[in-house]
Input
Amino acid sequence: MAYKLEVDHPDFPKDFEFDLDGILVKNKGSRTLTEDEEQAFLSKNFRTVKEVYGHSTIVKVTGTSELSSKEVKAIKEGGEG
Output
């Protein structure tokens, strides 16, 4: 199952759109990432979605990567997956 991001920020109204490093997620809503979105996120941040938002109290990350560990390693090292 692909990564799913859920946002729940009590200080913002429902449906307020948060930009999570290029991924738009509405408050009190969720978004399941495509493989292309995950790859773009990793290429921009050189860290996985789980590494960036896994410990957040506002953003909940569930699911697993659609990319292979080899692809993740290649992108983090600046190569091609």
